[in-house]
Amino acid sequence: MSCVNLCTWVQAGTSRSRSSPFKLLHPLKSHGFSFQFSKSQRPISSSFFTVSAVLTKQETVKEEEGEEKPTFNFKAYMIEKGHSVNQALDSAVALKEPEKIHEAMRYSLLAGGKRVRPVLCLAACELVGGHESMAMPAACAVEMIHTMSLIHDDLPCMDNDDLRRGKPTNHKVFGEEVAVLAGDALLAFAFEHIAVSTVGVSTARIVRSIGELAKSIGSEGLVAGQVVDICSEGLSDVGLEQLEFIHVHKTAALLEASVVLGAILGGGSDIEIEKLRMFARYIGLLFQVVDDILDVTKSSQELGKTAGKDLVADKVTYPKLMGIEKSREFADKLNKDAQDMLSGFDPEKAAPLIALANYIAHRQN
């Protein structure tokens, strides 16, 4: 496992290994990718690009004339995309017989949430020239799988949690047996939904996306991170390398799949897909670093879930190993490196991903 070197922070890189797609920070050239940036394609930095300054040629002229420059409305974008995703999820998982299992599936799937993963999928699709409709089934699928992981995480045999998104957890409402089956059903249906409902995309790209998603959640992806996380509880010798392994697999893998699926289904080239893969890998780890910080700095009411549970479970976290301030510095660095991977893309089309990275970095729950 190639881990983050916290002395020198993070250097941008990528991996396109089929056998283990979730390693961090391998040099680009060692995997056959060497991105040469022209002056016009150098990594995006806050010095010349921010989410609040996405300009078209016409708007640039207006700015030169002294008019106020336009802003990218991230809140409106998330509301619009979130509404589309919620409608698609509601339609995909209808309340039908057996009513009990579908009710349990819908209870957690439609309980709200930030819909970060499906929005990442849609934004990546549109960034490479695709249309939202091409990636919507995949966006719904990753949210179904994410919801499955939350239902199972909350079970008494796992994290034993009573609260999720401000509501009683699934097993508290429907019982442990139905909660397990609701998660299983969502997992199975996610793949069916991509296979059956994706339109306007070649069969080869649909199959490739299904394989990508399956690997991200299996024994080399989400499950791997979950198992190592469980086995690490209460241990005193867990270091940063093992902690990174846990979160690159447990948290970043599904975020990475969300972005990569969008890029594949949207018609992205291999180079574009791998750059977006690395972007997602950075923000995936960023998501967990921020989550660890919030767990020890916010209340249960503020988070909508039980606060301080990692401390109670004696889990290893970034604040525990690095302290709060160093963890925040690390989060800032991951955010910058993620945004650097969006160089060469149309800045206007990249604005949603830039905004999402900043949102993940600065979220409060």
Automatic annotation (TrEMBL):
Gene3D superfamilies: Farnesyl Diphosphate Synthase (1.10.600.10). GO terms for molecular function: geranylgeranyl diphosphate synthase activity; metal ion binding. The keyword Coiled coil does not apply. CDD domains: Trans_IPPS_HT (cd00685). Its cofactor is Mg(2+). It comes from the Eukaryota. NCBIfam families: FPPsyn. This is Geranylgeranyl pyrophosphate synthase. It comes from Elaeagnus umbellata (Autumn olive). The gene is GGPPS.
